[in-house]
């Protein structure tokens, strides 16, 4: 069974809003055995929406739309769907009662524009939007169906989980994905290493290479033609072949893996960041439960903060510059003591040509890891682009942390 997603909204096409919905929807559909065939983004334009619907129904069994369901004039999705499915709007008493309950303490919201939200297409099946005012609409198109949802991510996710996916139901087809992560080997060298493996794979299996910031994810996929036992056999062989470079046999973010290892050991970590400017801190406290292992960060972007807060001797900076092994070691050891943690990570590098207190080449980053027993430090050369450098530095920091914890 195939699905397509149509995201509706000018804001997506001018870069004002990033479409995070589609990637999440793809994950959910795969878990239900439904292949996401295409994602299309369209303007708030009648003609553009209708053309996208025609094309999607020419390819897919299920069409999912997000966005354009608000009460303002620029939100036209509901009206276009009425036209497309040959119907008109009527008042729905259940939707009205829901909206009145939702905003009973906010009379300013219950105005004439909000009242348009309880007008729904007559031939649509209406599902409750528990957390918002825009109703969820199901249209049948012969043997195909369309589900229309809000574009607000948290509303869309609840709608999918509580209403749309249960409505669609599980299919008999089984889509299987298994992913591992490797580091320390170029993509081309990895492909050479796996040449014989790929040559032996059945046509029903597909191996994808997904490189990013020094990590390569290898995803093994089957679309309903390989049993889970067979998939596991191929995956175990893939792990064996990549064992020297393997960092994880799951598709979890590195910070989640590191966090789990810290929690299992009942240990904590802190960070002292210069060139990464707090990115490492954001990653380490990004997920629920991070308070169990992550205590905090000192973002010592300025040299004065390195000296006055982290206690890096000014003479050391004059002799070695801020981008040096000596300095980053002191940063890591100091933040570990200041925040009383078992482990710490420190970063200092040059992320742009205006790097300041160092003549190091752009892309040079020193990272240190302080542990209860030792402090390790390593120098990396991570490219020329500012964001690329800081992202890669965070990846290097987490990879080494995982290796130390293991």
Verbal overview:
It is a single chain. The protein is 38% helix and 25% strand. The chain is an alpha/beta fold. It folds into 3 domains: 2-168, 3-Layer(aba) Sandwich (Molybdenum Cofactor Biosythetic Enzyme, Chain A); 175-248, Alpha-Beta Plaits, CATH 3.30.70.2860; 254-405, Maf protein, CATH 3.90.950. Helix 2 packs parallel to helix 6 (153-168) and helix 10 (254-265) packs parallel to helix 15 (386-405). It is globular, with a radius of gyration of 26 Å. The mean pLDDT is 92.
Spans of at least 5 consecutive residues with low confidence: none
Roughly what is the average pLDDT, rounded to an integer? 92
CATH topology of the largest domain: Molybdenum Cofactor Biosythetic Enzyme, Chain A
Which value, in Å, is the CA radius of gyration?
26 Å
Shape: globular
Question: How far apart, in Å, are the first and last alpha carbons?
Answer: 42 Å
Spatial arrangement of strands, main beta sheet: 2-1-3-8-7-6
**Percentage of residues in DSSP E strands:** 25-35%
Specify the CATH class of the largest domain: Alpha Beta
- Can you name the CATH architecture of the largest domain? 3-Layer(aba) Sandwich
Percent of residues in helices comes to 25-40%
Structural class: alpha/beta
CATH superfamily of the largest domain: MoaB/Mog-like domain
Question: How many domain modules?
Answer: 3
The major beta sheet can be summarized as: 6 strands, mixed
Tally of individual helices: 15
Number of β-strand runs: 17
